[in-house]
Amino acid sequence: RFTKPSSLQSSTTTSYSDLQKGSAILISAFNNPWTMRLTDSLRFRFVRASVDVYEIVDRTDPAHKHWAINTRLPFKEIDHDYGLVARVHDPTTGQIVLVAAGIGENGTVAASELLADPRYYVELKRQGLLPRPDQNWESVIETKMIDGKLGPPHILDSYLW
What we know:
The chain is of the alpha+beta class and 161 residues long.
């Protein structure tokens, strides 16, 4: 099925020259400097607002504070998480980069599921959110915990350019 060779590397062992060799998938946000670097210039980006508050902000509406997680709360009280899914033609590396990253672990898992599960492509296509090959795309997603289990990703906002 997959004919191109691939490799799996941690962010700490991945170099700039590795990213120049071909398309990449960046997993996780705050503990992945490559994700943070790539998303820093995007419309939706990750920000550590304070010691305990992590958020995704919208450059076009910086006052919007609905996509934040306060990590001071006990883990069992955090019943949702947010993530960012993107496909970007990275001008720095000259390659296509996919991002599946969350504020927390649950957001990262939900973002990864959105990219990996074909049924979500059907929904993206229905909503007109699948980018053409020459377009970039990013979406903010939310997932909720339901009976102690991770719920499906829901797209909250998207941008194509």
